[in-house]
Predict the 3D structure of the following.
Amino acid sequence: MDMIPLGIPVPRDLSAGRPDVGGLVDRFGRVATDLRVSVTDRCNLRCTYCMPAEGLDWMPEDELLSTAEMSRLIGIAVAHLGIEEIRFTGGEPLLFHGLEELIGGAAELLPRPQISLTTNAIGLERRAKALAAAGLDRVNISLDTVDRATFASMTRRDRLPAVLAGIDACHAAGIGPIKVNAVLMRGVNDGGACDLLRYCIGHDIELRFIEQMPIDSDNAWAAQEMMTAEEILAALRSEFTLRPASEPRGSAPAELWTVDDSRHRVGVIASVTRPFCGDCDRVRLTADGSVRSCLFGAEEFDLRGLLRSADPEDAVDLAIAQRWREALWRKQPGHGINDPGFLHPTRPMSAIGG
């Protein structure tokens, strides 16, 4: 695929229209094989960079997909659209009571997809064993600091011990690899970056720092105020030696670095300053049944209406698969965060899924 600067792909000849292929191909030659499924927009934390202290207006219950409806869409994605990995997200997915059932159903699909979970880990201590038994392969845990007071300030909840207990439970249940996602905020938790890396190394966890993105519900994000990838790396290099990892990055969002010439690695996801849109292989399904081809995309494509129609199931499944393909064909070349006319997503992050 031809590329232009900042990781943005160049479209191929569109005169012939979408090729007659079964997978989720777009106009730039990218193929989506990684499905992010938001199972709920609800969350039990109130992270300052994500939502207000009072929370948000949650989606009405009758608009949310049921466990059976989510399972059916996941089955269509795997059987008809070439999806190879399912990541369950939220909001906070552990608030969804049918999570084990969803994971178990996905694990029975052929070909079996890789199954992962992105969570804040509150409640994971008591559910890790059941999630592993259902078929959960990997877990990503959101953790911005290991300082209890800073954690309480950033999340507006004093729940750090519960998160750390959830991490320990994942180790005990054999879920792995375990990865931690962290957002550094200038003057808030940036001074604890090295402490967080030391914790992750000591617990055999791969840490990924993520540049703060414009996903806050009050649209207060400003690029000049965020911690950039270069600043994150500089903070880590104050106490560690970092060298670029040798393995190819592929479609993974994180640039990886080995730490002190050991087997341990740390990643930086520089969505803003080093976009990787040209290698994106992700597609998102919201908790109310809409397809989003990009986290920051303006378009959504409703699948719930088709799913709940009275037409024969086989015909509906084929129609859903075709609408899904059409949604990905319209995917834009990049997220546009750095464009002067960039508009924040109309939905908050908790309603889109990570």
The first strand starts at residue 3 and ends at 4. Residues 24-52+63-352 form a domain with the TIM Barrel fold (CATH 3.20.20.70). The chain has ten helices and 16 strands. Residues 313-329 form the longest helix (17 residues).
